[in-house]
């Protein structure tokens, strides 16, 4: 609790919502600019995905430490340092001249930004009396989720009419404004210098997750376990997870209390939220390059075409919050999974000439599916968790969701690159002057293989078709992944009509 009550609750609310909006925008704003960033850094399509996965993983690892750091150093002080770190890292993200520097800056940005959501939520709850918590959290949640569809539009506009670097520079004035508000209006909390963190558990978990993510990101480039680096990273990942597991089960106060996984419903909730991350985040990364490279849209148009996903998610979260408790959460989750699978099936039938309307409704429907199942998953996962264990449960819950998202992105991009190469090799086998189709097309100058323009045109068409085939494969796998969670619903028992969802469980929404 604060040492003294806030004197200006409205200004406190505006400051923390601005900070949380900053974090949520950066989840999606960078995805739109990936094609331009890829050209700047001369990176392959799977390599440029590190800009997103590094941010996700760093946030996932850092978020469970928010409780310890705020108790030890004070909530306001931690919030200010996190906001300064996020804003400073944004400057380095925009000024980076190499992919390595960009990824390093994104890691710092993710580690700093991980504190903005839980701390802003805690400040909002302490600012208002209990009977106003519902209204305050609704306002905070709307501000946070607003970034999911503001990010693509803003990112597309800045990239198209300025440079992609401005998607990070825009954080500076917003961050400074939020920093001024925090410094002036938010009071400090009491500090507990006796609070301790399980550093061994934290470091071993960070080693396991970091090595795993590095192995997934680099595996496609280095031919997986044919490379000594990948073998080393795999061994480090296994070692890190082993040390974390043994230490967590034997120490008195572990970094994350893994005994909560023995709760069957919570374990099923982790399975659902893992698949949720696996299915919902990869389309954010796949669609901007698809729209720019396959369909040829400008970056500002790409941003606008991505906005329906955020709009659908915001609408579905509002509806999901209202119907949860009235409808069996298993039915809501099944509906959401189908809403994510149907667009993926439709996307697997696309060609290089897909019109605008399918691009809009598939994005919107995926947003509906992703938004409507968030609350029901929490309803399934948290009823059996006692109040004193909710913080650990929320840490594990958010960590598993982020791991699913990072694995999904890495796997989708690795398969995209591999499938593109295989499809190109297969298609070139049919390029011959003796091919009947090419004979009929030969009178058109751009198809004449005996000329340099004809060869260049054919090479471009092959590249485009090979990439389209690879996208179709990824879309099919997303559909399968979404439907694979449906059998888990058979293992979930009935849920009480009215279940209290802990505030800690909503930090990653």
Question: Overview of this structure, please?
Answer:
- The chain has 509 residues and is mostly helical.
- It has three domains: 1-186, MFS general substrate transporter like domains (Growth Hormone, Chain: A); 199-255; 257-509, Growth Hormone, Chain: A (Up-down Bundle), CATH 1.20.1250.20.
- It is 73% helix and 0% strand.
Outline: globular
First-to-last CA distance: 24 Å
Order of helices and strands: HHHHHHHHHHHHHHHHHHHHHH
Specify the oligomeric state.
single chain
Mean pLDDT: 80
How many helices? The count is: 22
CATH architecture identity of the largest domain = Up-down Bundle
Number of strands: 0
Which blocks of ≥5 consecutive residues have pLDDT under 50?
A: 502-509
**Percent helix among the residues?**
over 70%
Q: Report the CATH C-level class of the largest domain.
A: Mainly Alpha
- Major beta-sheet overview: none
Q: Indicate the CATH topology of the largest domain.
A: Growth Hormone, Chain: A
CATH superfamily of the largest domain: MFS general substrate transporter like domains
State the gist of this model.
Helix content is 73%, strand content 0%.
SSE blueprint:
Elements (H helix, E strand, L loop, with lengths): L8 H24 L1 H8 L3 H4 L1 H13 L3 H8 L1 H21 L3 H15 L2 H12 L5 H29 L4 H4 L1 H15 L13 H21 L8 H23 L13 H17 L1 H13 L4 H25 L5 H19 L8 H17 L1 H8 L8 H39 L7 H6 L10 H33 L25
Helix pairs in contact: 1-8, 1-9, 1-11, 4-7, 4-12, 4-20, 5-6, 6-7, 6-8, 6-11, 9-16, 12-13, 12-20, 14-19, 14-20, 14-22, 15-16, 15-20, 15-22, 16-18, 17-18, 17-19, 17-22, 20-22
């Amino acid at each position: 609790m604060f040492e003294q009550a806030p004197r200006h609750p409205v200004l406190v609310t505006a400051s923390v919502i601005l900070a949380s909006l900053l974090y949520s925008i950066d989840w999606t704003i960078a995805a739109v600019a990936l094609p331009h960033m890829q050209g700047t850094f001369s990176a392959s399509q799977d390599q440029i995905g590190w800009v997103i996965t590094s941010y996700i993983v760093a946030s996932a690892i850092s978020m469970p430490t928010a409780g310890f750091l705020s108790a030890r150093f004070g909530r306001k002080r931690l919030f200010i340092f996190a906001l300064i770190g996020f804003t400073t890292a944004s400057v380095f993200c925009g000024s980076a001249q190499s992919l390595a520097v960009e990824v390093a800056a994104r890691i710092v940005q993710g580690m700093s930004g991980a504190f903005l959501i839980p701390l802003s939520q805690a400040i909002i709850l302490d600012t208002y009396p209990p009977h106003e918590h519902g209204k305050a959290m609704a306002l905070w949640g709307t501000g946070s989720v607003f970034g999911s569809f503001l990010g693509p539009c803003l990112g597309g506009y800045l990239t198209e009419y300025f440079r992609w670097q401005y998607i990070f520079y825009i954080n500076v004035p917003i961050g400074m404004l939020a920093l001024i508000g925090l410094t002036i209006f938010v009071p400090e909390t009491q500090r507990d210098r006796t609070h301790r963190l399980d550093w061994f558990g934290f470091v071993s978990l960070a080693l396991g997750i970091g090595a795993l993510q590095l192995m997934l990101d680099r595996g496609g480039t280095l031919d997986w376990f044919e490379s000594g680096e990948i073998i080393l990273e795999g061994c480090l990942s296994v070692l890190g997870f082993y040390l974390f597991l043994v230490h967590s089960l034997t120490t008195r106060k572990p970094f994350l209390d893994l005994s909560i996984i023995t709760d069957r419903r919570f374990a099923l909730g982790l399975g659902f939220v893992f698949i949720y991350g696996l299915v919902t985040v990869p389309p954010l990364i796949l669609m901007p390059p698809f729209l720019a490279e396959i369909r040829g849209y400008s970056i500002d148009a790409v941003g606008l075409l991505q906005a329906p996903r955020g709009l659908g998610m915001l609408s579905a979260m509002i509806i999901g919050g209202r119907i949860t408790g009235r409808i069996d959460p298993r039915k809501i989750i099944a509906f959401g999974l189908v809403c994510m699978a149907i667009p993926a099936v439709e996307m697997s039938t696309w060609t290089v000439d897909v019109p605008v309307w399918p691009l809009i409704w598939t994005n919107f429907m995926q947003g509906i599916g992703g938004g409507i199942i968030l609350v029901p998953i929490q309803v399934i996962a948290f009823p059996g968790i006692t109040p004193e264990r909710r913080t650990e449960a929320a840490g594990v819950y958010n960590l598993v969701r982020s791991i699913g998202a990072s694995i999904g992105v890495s796997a989708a991009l690795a398969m995209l690159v591999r499938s593109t190469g295989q499809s190109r090799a297969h298609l070139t086998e049919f390029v011959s002057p003796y091919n009947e189709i090419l004979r009929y097309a030969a009178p058109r100058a751009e198809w004449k293989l005996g000329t340099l323009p004809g060869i260049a045109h054919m090479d471009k068409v092959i590249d485009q078709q090979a990439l389209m085939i690879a996208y179709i494969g990824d879309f099919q796998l997303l559909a399968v992944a979404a439907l694979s969670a449906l059998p888990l619903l058979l293992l979930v028992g009935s849920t009480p009509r009215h279940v209290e969802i802990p505030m800690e469980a909503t930090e990653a929404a």
